[in-house]
Amino acid sequence: MSHHLVEFKDIHFRYPDGTLALNGISFRISRGESVGIVGANGAGKSTLLMHINGYLLPASGSIVIGDLQLDKQTRQEIRKKVGFVFQNPDDQLFMPTVYDDVAFGPLNLGISPDRVADRVDEALGTVGCLKLKSKPPHHLSAGQKSSVAIATVIAMHPDILVMDEPASNLDPKSRRQLINLLKVFEHTKIVASHDLDLILDVCKRCIVIKEGRVAADGPTEAILSDNILLEENNLELPLTLQR
Amino acid sequence: MFDTEFFNLGYLDRLSYQDTLIHRIDPRIKLFSAASFIVAVISFPKYSISGLFPFFLFPILFIALGDIPVRLILKKVLVVSPFALFVGIFNPLFDSRPALEVPGFTVSCGWVSFASIMLKFTLAISTALLLIATTSFPGICFALQKLRIPKAFVAQLLFLYRYIIVLMEETMKIIRARDMRSFGKRGNEMKHFVPLISVLFIRTVDRAERVYHAMLARGFNGKIYSARSYALTMADMLFIFTSIGLILLFRVVNLSKLIGRWTTG
Fold it and tell me: Is the predicted pLDDT of residue B87 greater than 60, yes or no?
């Protein structure tokens, strides 16, 4: 037993077309940590995230989530602990109404329908979208869609929140609301983004990925103020640190 | 052109989220009465015309009580009418026995059956459209599920509803991108259309993959559960009994003939 919640040990992964996406990644994330994953386009961030809930399985190396070693048998269990928020809310919201969508996860967990109703209200309330309950997703704005997408995941009460570019389609105000929302969550958070200011605001720790390896791992402030490291990774200083 | 079509598509859908007397009736009830209505209309014999007229009461009531613009329904009926037109258009040629003799003018049986086909078509299509316009699509799917339609089929419909607009948006973006870089006729030929469709296809496959991933991430294991529960109200019961009663009455008794007989003595 360890108190580490997410542990990657020397993970390699190659896509069927031959691209080596992960080339020996290792890190440990403990309970309650908030970690930003940054890196250039194609560095392997999304591939890395898809390993956390077992959508992709590593070619070699071992992944431990909570107490479970990730493999074909355990990935169903692991998915119950990992809440995955997709970059594009149109991919995340696949049910005909907001209510059905938020209820989808809890119903699959086998929770009874009337308790599911409570969970849906609670989750929508947390993200401030209770009013949208009976709307179909295509009647929502992009900001509302991404809030609801987060609600669909927190309704399952996951231990770990994984997010891929959570703010990519949001206007500045919605983005700010999202950041405030993320700060409130006590889940373990793993956020991949090019929005370095968001990472700086939300995450205490930051991992830089380069060509499928960990290039740097440490406190966010230190990493995101290291000009040379950032430039090597197609990144630049967050706006708030540029003065 | 594609843009305007795109924005029209959502119109019926938006209508279905209104809140009127008709919209509030349980989807199961509406689906069942619409289905029995269509069966009753279609079951009329080949040459009947007068017996069909009382059935127009239903679409008219739906339009009035459901606050649906008449023009919209008429336009949509017109758009699909060629199908019925081609089914019936040869009847007057093949079936030329005289049905009605007015001095100097003969109406053949073929024309009568053609008119009957067009009437049945108009009734059936407008009712189907009105059902969609007054019932939210998820509601209809729920009703289908309750009426024991296989789950896989219902799930297909749900996804169709959810993603048809996303897909149209994607198409619109591709078409816009093409139009912005093709000037006048060039770039709009058929040979550019084929790669365009294949791009759309590949994007769709990619999206399907991502959606499936999203479903798995939330514990999908082959079944889609529904958390909705509807209870039938008194109004629902009243609606189903009157509508089924009227449909039976209209089907069995030719009201047009009766009224004609009364008024002309």
Answer: yes
Could you state, in order of their start, the residue ranges of all structural domains in chain B?
19-149+231-259, 150-228
Q: How far is CA A200 from CA A54, A193, B156, B246, in A?
A: 27, 11, 42, 68
Q: Which of B141, B214, B227 sits opposite A107 (nearest CB)?
A: B227
ipTM of this predicted complex? 0.80
Please give the backbone phi and psi of residue A150, each rounded to the nearest 5 degrees, phi first: -70, -40
Q: How far apart are CA A61 and CA B61, in angstroms?
A: 68
State which amino acid sits at residue B92.
Answer: P
Write the pLDDT tens digit of every residue in A172-185: 888 898 899 898 88
pLDDT, position B91: 85
State the DSSP H helix or E strand holding residue A222, giving kind and residue range, or none if neither: helix A220-224
A107 at the B interface (CB within 8 A)? yes
Q: Which region among A157-171, B112-126, B178-192, B250-264 has the lowest average model confidence (pLDDT)? A: B178-192
Domain A36-43+79-238 in CATH 3.40.50.300: yes
For the cut 50, the answer to whether the pLDDT of residue B143 exceeds it is yes
Q: Which of A174, A86, A76 is nearest to A127 (CA)?
A: A174
Find all residues with CB under 8 Å of A184, minimum gap 6, and list them: none
Contact B127, B56 (CB under 8 A): no
Rounded to whole angstroms, the Cα distance separating B233 from A2 reads 56
What's the full length of chain A, in residues?
243
| CB–CB contact A76 B219 (8 Å) | yes
The mean pLDDT value for B169-187 works out to 77
Phi, psi of B181 (to 5 degrees): -115, 10
Per-residue pLDDT tens over the stretch B193-237: 788 888 889 988 988 889 998 998 888 887 777 766 667 888 899
Q: Name the pTM for this structure.
A: 0.77
What is the residue extent of each domain of chain A?
36-43+79-238
Between CA A43 and CA A233 the distance in angstroms is 9
Reading phi first (left if > 0) and then psi (alpha if -120 to 50, else beta), residue A195 is in beta
Give how far B173 is from chain A: nearest CA, Å.
Answer: 16
Across the interface, whether the CB atoms of B221 and A76 are under 8 A apart is answered yes
CB contact under 8 A, B166 and A90: yes
